[in-house]
Amino acid sequence: MDTVVVAPPASVPVTLRKLYFRRFAFAAVWAALLFATADELGPLSTALLLVYPLFDVAAAVVDVRSAKANGGPVTLLYANIAISSLTVLALALAATSGIPAVLRVWGAWAVTAGIVQLVAGAVRRHLGGQWPMIVSGAISTLAGLSFVTQAGADDPSLGSLAGYAFLGGVFFLAAALRLARGARHPA
Q1: The model's pTM
Q2: Which 3 state secondary structure label does DSSP give 3?
Q3: What is the pLDDT of residues 119-178, one digit of tens each?
Q4: Dihedrals φ, ψ of 30, to 5°?
Q5: Residues 6+ away with beta carbon under 8 Å from 137
Q6: Is residue 24 helix, strand or coil?
Q7: 6: exposed, middle or buried (C-beta count within 10 Å: 0-12, 13-18, 19+)?
């Protein structure tokens, strides 16, 4: 009996590659801006905290459109949209209570979004370039737990969130480069 392997439509990896490059660039700039304001929870740092999950929602919407157009799974992407949208609201409330509350909310988001990213990467393995997403999802889950722990520190700071975002961006860059390499060297 012959087995037929069907390649994913070419537009899926192209869309993901472009999206992943954009996510890297956004994360790098965002991390630098947050790091510069990490010691206090002022208007700029609060705005940055809200923009990050909003950008995640926008990226997931782009991803859903691509996946739907090519018959790909979208359930996890919708879950990501819902989780990140709720996170924006929770962060807005947490910002009125201080950095520890923000770290707790961000930590909960990092755990749940990390699990979703890990599973989505595993489901999309056939597209190529997903191992960085799987690893990033696992790291995000662990980082989320550390943010919750940091919230109880004597002098908590938002600096660790900047590092987290930058590292996440590096994983998006790695995934984009792997997808680009796969496009040049088809199986």
Answers
A1: 0.85
A2: coil
A3: 988 887 877 667 888 998 999 999 999 999 999 999 899 999 999 999 999 988 988 898
A4: -60, -45
A5: 114, 115, 116, 117, 118, 119, 120, 121
A6: helix
A7: exposed
